[in-house]
User: Which sequence fits this backbone?
């Protein structure tokens, strides 16, 4: 009898193992617009490694950089249609499809990196993911790394808000960013990203704002001598999945994908924080830039005014609620 029970249990274990081993294999195409060496590439590569490991090899992730699958403007709709499986995109390109994301474009919406991750990893972030799934059918798998824009210019070092006044700065065609620089006292000029370098070279503008890694990769340090660590705008790179690709996965594979995304997002945060320090060190040493850490009091006060005006004049109720929830998470 004992031998029979042992045989039955061993058979059951074999059956479970065989079921996992012979789960349907699924190929997932994961796209993004940036180069493979970018923060997007760091997240994608780690996700590919972990999803394949956690699924026991039943998931095959194919990373497609550089708009091979779609541009960021096209990708969200393509995932809704099911023609793109997964995509990593800048958060502000989600806002045309999910308006509350506009809250994260506001200046100094995060008081610190700890505040940012408390928001995204906590109840607020979980609520955002749930709403996106309900309203758009897409699953937000990870928010990824939070990075900030710093301010570079050709005119002078920036140590306080008084130093920025009158400086002509390139901005995207984004109303919040325009209003922010007006509140700072700088002169915002909307110019396409592709024309930024030429605008700096000709003197059409004398400043811009980007993450330090972009200042390095685009070689803006060859033109601009000054970099101020303002960290006034935050940006991050969520990874989203279509309901079509998630529907192809069994429960174990879904768990593997979700866990791999969260772990890859944590890896990306650690790796990009390291690269940020390296970029700033390069810009100061090899790039010859004067790097300053301005008194942010005046900048933050101006940023809060922009937030308040946005709440009063531009935000819908869902976005207002999100802004207030983000503020509350800092308390």
Assistant:
């Amino acid at each position: 009898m004992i031998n029979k029970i042992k045989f039955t249990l061993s058979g059951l274990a074999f059956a479970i193992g065989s079921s996992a081993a012979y789960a349907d294999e699924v190929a997932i195409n994961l796209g993004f617009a940036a180069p493979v060496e970018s923060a997007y590439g760091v997240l994608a590569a780690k996700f590919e490694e972990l999803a394949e490991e956690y699924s026991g090899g039943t998931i095959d992730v194919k990373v497609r950089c550089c708009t091979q699958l779609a541009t960021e403007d096209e990708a969200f709709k393509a995932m809704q249609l099911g023609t793109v499986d997964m995509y990593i995109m800048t958060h502000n390109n989600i806002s045309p499809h999910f308006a509350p994301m506009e809250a994260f474009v506001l200046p100094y919406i995060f008081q610190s990196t700890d505040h940012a991750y408390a928001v995204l990893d906590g109840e607020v972030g979980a609520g955002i993911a749930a709403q996106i799934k309900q309203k758009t059918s897409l699953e937000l798998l990870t928010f990824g790394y939070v990075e900030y824009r710093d301010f570079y210019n050709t005119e002078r070092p920036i140590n306080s808000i008084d130093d920025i006044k009158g400086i002509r700065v390139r901005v995207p065609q984004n109303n919040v960013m325009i209003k922010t620089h007006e509140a700072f006292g700088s002169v915002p000029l909307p110019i396409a990203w592709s024309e930024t370098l030429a605008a700096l070279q000709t003197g059409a503008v004398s400043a811009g704002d980007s993450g330090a890694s972009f200042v390095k990769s685009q070689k803006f340090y060859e033109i601009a001598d000054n970099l101020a660590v303002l960290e006034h705008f935050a940006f991050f790179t969520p990874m989203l999945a279509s309901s079509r690709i998630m529907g192809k996965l069994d429960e174990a594979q879904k768990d593997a994908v979700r866990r791999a995304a969260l772990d890859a997002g944590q890896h990306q945060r650690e790796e990009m924080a390291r690269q940020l320090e390296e970029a700033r060190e390069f810009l100061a040493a090899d790039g010859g830039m004067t790097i300053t850490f301005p008194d942010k009091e005046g900048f933050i006060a101006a940023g809060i005014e922009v937030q308040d005006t946005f709440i009063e004049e531009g935000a819908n109720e869902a976005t207002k609620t999100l802004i207030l929830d983000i503020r509350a998470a800092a308390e």
Notes: The longest helix spans residues 251-285.
